[in-house]
Amino acid sequence: MARWICSVKPDDGVDTDTLYGKLGIPEVTASLRARRLRWYGHVERATSCINPIMKMAILGARGRGRPRKSWSDCVRNDLHTCGMGNTDPQNRGAWKSGVRRSSRLLPTPATGTNPAADDN
Asked: pTM for this structure?
């Protein structure tokens, strides 16, 4: 989609990160990480049946081979990457500011301007 917006073809040799920078779109992995951490905070603060299910032990033997990467593994990695291991998800204000700080989102371009047209 970014290539279509900027009228750039794959053969032109422009990488996707450059196009994202022109459009003011944050890095995709940072956006996904921020969304996962926001949802994790929501799940941790939930008072319904979500928490007991998340902490429930699963009985039985694990199958052969490497286990699949789980959502909790991704969240644990995101917490380590963003340095939020000591932030308490129960403290909504601190958690929210930590997620914002860790996402390092780029500023959204002003309405009505086309950043790709400025470089031409």
From this structure: 0.64
